Amino acid sequence: MSIDLVREYLKQFNKDNDILEMDESTATVELAAQALGTEGARIAKSLSFQNKDGAMIIVVAGDAKVDNKKFKEEFGFKARMLSSDDTVKFTGHAVGGVCPFALPGNINVYLDESMKRFKTMFPACGSSNSAIELTLEELEKLSKSKKWVDVCKNWG
Question: What CATH number has the domain bearing residue 136?
Fold first, then answer.
């Protein structure tokens, strides 16, 4: 299972025991916020997009939407999200559990500025009922992100 890969990956950072597994689903921002007792904006959505190498991940705040114009200005191509099947194929994680951890080496991760208004965020951990609370610095380090980007709208 994907969560087992994430748990193994997070061991190198001594964070494997910090994974939260809930009895209820955390597959959407609303469900995750309810299960974790936090506001939806603090759920870190890992969105998977097609690029020339196959795929990339952008982690955004739960209340943010990707702005197509900003995306194209940043990356030089039109934003096209992966299908459910391609998401699993390229990232190893199913929709609802996609996260910026334990990804194949060719998957670049970017973090969106929409998360910078919070001290901590809750990304998924490879399953539709898991999450981990991380500071932005931890999220940046553990995701091995390339850089911070500003590609979202309608947040804050």
Answer: 3.90.960.10
Q: How many domains does the chain have?
A: 1
CA–CA gap between residue 120 and residue 15 (Å, rounded): 15
Closest to 44 measured CA to CA, from 109, 89, 92: 109
| Tens of pLDDT, residues 21-80 | 999 999 999 999 999 999 999 999 999 999 998 999 999 999 999 999 999 999 999 999
DSSP-derived pairing of the beta strands 56-61 and 147-149: unpaired
List CB contacts of 81: < 8 A, sequence separation 6 or more: 47, 48, 49, 50
Radius of gyration of the chain (CA): 14
Find out whether 45 and 87 touch, Cβ atoms under 8 Å: no
Global pTM? Answer: 0.96
CA 87 to chain CA mean position, Å: 12
Q: For residue range 65-119, list pLDDT tens digits in order.
A: 999 999 999 999 999 999 999 999 999 999 999 999 999 988 999 999 999 999 9
Provide the CA 67 distance to its chain's centre, in angstroms.
17
